[in-house]
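tokens incoming
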């Protein structure tokens, strides 16, 4: 038994979404035979085979490339060995660094060695170039061959109300400028040889254990040599290590943090150099996105995509009993199980007018890579994609009085969320941890960047108001999960899960898609969303 009732009612009563079916799917996907579902491994091959067999059993049609179930996703996979050299130096003094404790780096260059040869380090503040906000942290300073050192998050994250920057970047809510992916991309655009972000748990939204969880591995989209990143190494330095670095260079990091919260900030040469040399194992692996579909009856060219990611973190450090796997039971086998149940519910209904696509993305944990490959070369045109409804981490602590909204003010799908949550007797609660930037950290974002209206269901965005225990119990679930099991081996299936709250969320996502599947309604971005202009530009394709 999973705990509490095995079914939960939605607005449409054609079939109940089953907690038992969800539990069985998650339990299967987290078996050791799938080896933690890392892309490009034997565990992937078994995962792909299992998911296709499930899609077939559900009665879905192949929805991938050329009538297949899949879309190829070529990935560059790198892994750093033991460092041969790893140090900072300033004022004639060299300080050896402890890999993993003081600094965490990886590479996305297809080379057998990653080397930074005593490169000058430059503090670039938050590293933001935002013309629409009148903001430029770089001031044309040359970073070619240098190491860019960033602060995490946005310039206004820690600003007080009386500072001019307050609210310019969403306040506590992270913008895309605050994401580590943006900072590494910006450093590469400017020719830096390495990029390091100073870690702060509050501003990052997660602790150091999450930073180092990939264990020196990295994945990127395989690219032609001419498109290769300039960064030999990219990663993080711990807050304590950064403080020592700036102290030894005679700089006041606290004052520099304040200066970086102003438009007048100019990059500062730290007066220190970074040296690193790592052996690298690198290969191009062939991963796969998986797609099933229910073709639309009258407007099959109009698609509603339900998405979750099938990948997790693979093999972890061995314990006393041998190998262990970081199999991502909640993140995101539970999401995969949820979209399967949504597919089962749609198959029990009359054929929809629009096409329903069930997408299982690869390499989400490596930087939303599977969904990004899809968005760059979509199987279903983005102009006539009605919506992307994403599920990624649901709370397993029981029924809730509310549903958590991620990304307030972005689009009209949030109004649909409120409507269907109300039918369940629930209300919408805005995310309480907007500084984590969760809107930019799940696969729906790849499609949002192309203008597709999106909605993310993710319980990590805020404490649910649980029927049993209230918001305190919801916060305890978040603290326990993020503090102990996020990206770790203990994110495992358990018979103790209470899935009644997860069923509420899955049913709401079904109801939203169901309301679109038999209508001519087109969700929209709201005024002020950075994605509205993109969508408006393709309006003619939807008329």
């Amino acid at each position: 038994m999973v705990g509490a009732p095995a079914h939960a009612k939605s607005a449409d009563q054609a079939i109940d979404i089953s907690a038992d079916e969800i539990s069985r799917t998650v339990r299967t996907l987290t078996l050791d035979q799938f080896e933690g579902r890392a892309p490009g491994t034997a565990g992937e091959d078994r995962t792909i085979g299992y998911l296709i067999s499930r899609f077939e059993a559900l009665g879905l049609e192949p929805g991938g490339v050329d009538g297949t179930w899949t879309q190829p996703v070529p990935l560059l996979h790198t892994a750093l060995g033991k460092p041969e050299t790893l140090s900072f130096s300033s004022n004639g003094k060299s300080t050896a660094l402890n890999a993993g404790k003081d600094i965490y780096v990886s590479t996305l260059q297809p080379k057998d060695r990653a080397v930074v040869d005593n490169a000058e380090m430059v503090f670039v503040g938050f590293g933001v170039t935002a013309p629409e906000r009148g903001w430029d942290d770089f001031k044309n300073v040359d970073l070619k061959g240098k190491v860019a050192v960033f602060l995490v998050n946005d310039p206004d994250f820690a600003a007080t109300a009386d500072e001019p920057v307050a609210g310019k970047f969403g306040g506590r809510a992270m913008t895309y400028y605050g994401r580590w992916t943006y900072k590494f991309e910006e450093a590469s655009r400017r020719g830096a040889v390495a990029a390091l972000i100073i870690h702060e748990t509050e501003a990052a939204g997660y602790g150091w254990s999450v930073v180092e969880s990939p264990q020196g591995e990295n994945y990127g989209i395989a690219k032609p040599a001419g498109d290769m990143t300039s960064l030999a190494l990219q990663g993080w330095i711990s807050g304590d290590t950064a403080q020592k670095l700036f102290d030894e260079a005679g700089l006041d990091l606290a004052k520099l943090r304040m200066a970086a919260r102003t438009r007048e900030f100019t990059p500062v040469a730290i007066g220190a150099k970074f040296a690193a040399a790592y052996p690298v194992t690198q290969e191009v692996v062939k991963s796969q996105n998986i797609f099933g579909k229910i073709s639309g009856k009258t407007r099959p060219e109009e698609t509603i995509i339900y998405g979750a990611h099938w990948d997790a973190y693979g093999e972890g450090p061995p314990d006393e009993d041998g190998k262990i796997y970081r199999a991502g039971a909640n993140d995101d086998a539970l999401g995969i199980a949820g979209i399967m149940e949504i597919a089962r519910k749609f198959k029990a209904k009359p054929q929809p007018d629009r096409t329903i696509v069930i997408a299982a993305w690869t390499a989400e944990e490596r930087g939303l890579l599977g969904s990004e490959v899809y968005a760059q070369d979509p199987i279903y045109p983005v102009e006539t994609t009605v919506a992307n409804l994403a599920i990624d981490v649901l709370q397993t602590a029981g029924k809730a009085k509310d549903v958590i909204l991620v990304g307030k003010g972005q689009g009209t799908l949030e109004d649909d969320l409120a409507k269907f949550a109300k039918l369940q007797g629930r209300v919408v609660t805005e995310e309480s941890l907007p500084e984590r930037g969760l809107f930019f950290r799940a696969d729906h974002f790849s499609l949002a960047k192309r203008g597709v209206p999106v909605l993310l269901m993710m319980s990590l965005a805020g404490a649910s108001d649980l029927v049993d225990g209230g918001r305190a119990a919801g916060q305890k679930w978040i603290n326990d999960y993020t503090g102990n099991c996020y990206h770790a081996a203990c994110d495992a299936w358990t018979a103790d899960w209470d899935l009644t709250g997860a069923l509420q969320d899955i049913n709401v996502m079904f109801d939203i898609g169901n309301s679109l599947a038999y209508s001519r309604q087109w969700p929209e971005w709201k005024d002020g969303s950075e994605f509205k202009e993109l969508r408006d530009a393709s309006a003619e394709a939807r008329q």
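note: Confidence is low (pLDDT under 50) at residues 1-11.
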